[in-house]
Amino acid sequence: MKKILVTGGCGYIGSHTIINLIDNGFELVSIDDLSNARASSIEHIKDITGRTVPNYTVDLKDIQATRGVFQKEGPFAGIIHFAAYKLVGESVEKPLAYFRNNLFSLLNILECMREFDTDNLIFSSSCSVYGNTDQLPVTEETPRQSAESPYGRTKQMGEDILRDVSTLSGHPKTVLLRYFNPAGAHESSLHGEDPANKASNLVPVITETAMGKRKNMKVFGTDYDTRDGSCVRDYIHVMDLAAAHTLALQYLLEGRNQSTCETFNLGIGEGVTVLEAIQAFEKVTNQKLAYEVGPRRPGDVEAIYANYEKAAKHLRWQPKRNIEDIMATAWAWEQRRSASAPD
Prior knowledge:
Layout: E1 3-7, H1 12-23, E2 27-31, H2 40-49, E3 55-56, H3 63-73, E4 78-81, H4 88-93, H5 95-115, E5 120-126, H6 150-166, E6 173-179, E7 181-183, H7 202-210, E8 217-220, E9 232-233, E10 235-237, H8 238-253, E11 261-266, E12 272-273, H9 274-285, E13 291-294, H10 309-315, H11 323-340
Helix pairs in contact: 1-2, 1-8, 3-5, 5-6, 7-11, 9-11
């Protein structure tokens, strides 16, 4: 049983990926400092899989503490690196914090991988690296534009670091996964998006509003050059995204990679506007949503969605769920976590 280290393993995407990795026969170790995640994710993973995953509450900016996990738990067959600050709006307000956290943590992981002869790395990148592109859907060859936020710039810089490092002898083979807008929850409704800080992603904001946790929600801009004026995004179910990480890891472990650093888009290939996402939620749940229109939000791009043909061909990956599946599972999870939350 190959052992895999997942950084950010208590976070939204990391924890769902751990579930998928366990289902595919891997042994897991997590690092998560819980700065925007909950330790309860480990219990949810156990509820679903029957397996207890050790989590080390380590700040990856601390090279000695990071090295200690490699010393205690290694060797690892591969690393999946999710851990990063990820809020676009916050990154505009706190750019230095984002550069410090997202880049130093990556550099320390790479240093430990070199020291402990760890060969395979999956890097959590983002469609934000494309910036405000004129080419839709975007392919992996679509030229990157200037990032619209410091968060997006950290992903661009992370990709550049990994391309440079992967050309050197003794450094890891790397897959860069550029994913679009993860949403939804595990079909069991035992686990879903539950950030320690206030949710800012569209789908949990929708479900929290419907649950009455928020008086209403805001649509940031309806004056974009799109079919209804609101931003267009490619919403991908988190379990489809999780499966892609497992497939990318297997791709490296089986030696099927075409080069030492490869890039794949992960989206469903369809753009959905914010207003259409709201309508999908209302259709699936029969809940009327209270929302108001506000001004544009700094850092948001107008429209972005994926061409995922390369991932389908090389990783043998296909998304299985659509926007209605996303809303149905997210709502089931919201109802469950709200029912179990303390008064």
